[in-house]
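quick one if you have a minute, typing this from the bus. theres a chain ive been looking at and ive put its sequence and its fold in token form underneath. please have a look and point out which stretches look like helix strand or loop to you. anything you notice is useful, everything is just below.

***
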Amino acid sequence: MSDSVFVKWTLDDRKVEVIDGWVCLEGVREVDELTALEEHPNRQAILRALPGASHMAGRIALTLPEASVAQAALRRHQDTFDGSPRAVQARMQQAVWQKVFADGAD
């Protein structure tokens, strides 16, 4: 059973929710973490288009209350520990990719 938390409706009536640790748009995974707007490279353009935005979830702009809901759901999912071999392998793979990209891989 999937864990789903509603975040918001987009202006064009698409559903944004957190499902199993991912921010999803209409059920399709976008990202598994939020980016604070002050850390986003296009923050000025985003603020011109959406003055109330405080965070980005991939291509989805979120206000502070929406980001709080999404972040709480993401944290709740991360707090559940799955010790199965498959889950451990997935976490290791993610850690390796984060390290590779942090070191400047293309």
Summary: Residues 4-81 form one domain.
